[in-house]
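Reviewer 2 asked us to include a model.

Predict the structure of this chain.
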Amino acid sequence: MLIFSVQILDSTVTWYNWFRQKTTNNQETMPRTMLTDDTWRKLSQLLYQTGRVYKKPEHRLTLEGILYRMRTGCPWRDLPPDFGHWSAIFRRFNLWTKKGVLNLLFKYLSKDTDSEWLFIDGSIVRSHQHSCGAASDSDEAIGKSRGGNSTKIHLAVDSHGLPVHFELSAGHRHDVAYAEQLISSAPRSDYVVADKGYDSEALRAYVKSNGSIPVIPRKGNSKTGNQEIDWCLYKYRHLVENAFGRIKHFRGIATRYDKLQRNYAGMVALAFAFVWLPMWV
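Predicted model (structure tokens):
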């Protein structure tokens, strides 16, 4: 029985050594990247124009490391060394979010919009337990509900479903609380389209005061009804849902791992910038 156990242990050790050697060999391969020469050429021009980023050859690998973390959601310490030391990548990302570089990148790429229609909506993102406990007096856009800790992304998209403005809030905050801020920060549109969660006469009056037509259905218990709703236009409201679906392909967006609100907002802005990037390259 002892000889049989030793044979099993020897075979297990042999398999482990083989697997470790195979893993070591695979580490020599560069991890999958997102930047092409054309996209980096465009992004680097915008980054240098902000005045916050200097021309350094390692910035491309730094941005690749940030994108890798956004795509996989891994801890910063687990970044592959091919992109550089994880501490240097994180410190540069933290500096860029503090200076608003990533948000400026998104704002520049989204400046040419088709503003005939404006679609608004909100989507909840679960917050990982490691994203809580920041040394801050604010809630860092993390709220508690029956589902646990969460953050809500409030988004406005244009007629083609391209993002034009977003806001972050705690997950338990109502969508309509950020509707006016979304509309005022987005380009003026002819129509503002939202679902029944935005059913508010005060919001409709605000939309009309801005010279737009609200396409916001009333709830089923309303005595007014929805005779004036343009249901054909309302069917295109899925464009804002599609925008959420596109950025939630990235694991670092679908689940929040960042403690600070500005760092998570920087990740979201970077994801939306990549939604716009094919329009420029």
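The longest strand covers residues 117-127. The beta strands are 117-127, 143-145, 148-157, 163-170, 191-193, 213-215, 255-256. We have added this to the supplementary material.
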